[in-house]
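Bump. Still looking for 6-phosphofructo-2-kinase domain-containing protein structure tokens.
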Amino acid sequence: QNIRATKLNLPAYHGLTEAEAINDFRNRILNNTSHYETMSEADKDFSWIKTVDGGKQVVLNKIFGYLPGRIASFVMNLHTTPKSIYLSRHGESKHNVKQMIGGDTDLSPHGEEFATCL
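Sorry for the wait, here they are.
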């Protein structure tokens, strides 16, 4: 399912059937497996980030500081499957009722209702 969702639309697979593309991608994984190194207890003193099952699990080890933290945040927010993102203005605020602009007031009852429906 992960291969179907993330790899079939890549330019490298244009013109191939779904079965051919999946087979090719699985062969690429097998060919690269010999170059992988599994993290072990001996690596506990190093900083590393490990993703498991396409990012369903992320393991961090000795991640300290600004840049390593930003990299970890980036890796944890990668998505391999398409997702919808919806943006909305806030519901009506107490300032909106008074025809005021700006501020940081609570929502009006109508705004609360909007938030609940949203």
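The chain has three domains: 1-36, 40-83, 86-118.

Edit: fixed formatting.
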